[in-house]
Amino acid sequence: MEPLSPRGLPPIGRKLEAATLRLAAQHSTxxxxxSLGIVFLWFALPKFVPGLSPADQLAQDTIAVLTGGLxxxxxxxxxxxxxxxxxxxxxxxxxxxxxTLLALFAQMAGTLTPLVLFWHDMxxxxxxxxxxxxxxxxxxxxxxxxxxxxxxLPHAGRRGRSQEAPAATATAGVRADTPVA
Length: 181
Hints:
The protein is mainly alpha-helical. It has helices at 11-44, 56-66, 73-93, 97-112, 114-117, 119-122, 131-137, 139-152; strands at residues 123-125, 128-129. A two-stranded antiparallel ribbon has the order 1-2. The longest helix has 34 residues, at 11-44.
């Protein structure tokens, strides 16, 4: 039997851990961006068909309030479907990613507003969301994913660096190119 390292892993375990961390550092942002794009597309497509999305009425009511009644009903529903589809396609393709993320953050800000605008429908008791409130609160995870993707973008001020984002750390303090002891 091989002796255990100070970290409690045999040498084969350390090699497997290093390979896993390297793989995660190389592909985690792409996987996160792709999965977020799929979620956006999955939520967007039903909005093209009246009554198919469970969020239709809430979305239409929210857009009507946010636009002061200028955009209502089916127009609001279709515009939201188009916006969410564009966000999905931007995430899935990686094209116009900064613009896509800006649109995503604006859309998410609008998505959170029913918690305040229609609080009586969103909460069953103080700090206890109803089903609509839960549907909206889950967007915090989508926002965190978008922030993570945004953080991986190359900064405009970096000169002499590759256009690729720097390798993300897979675990606190462990880079993909750092051997794991």
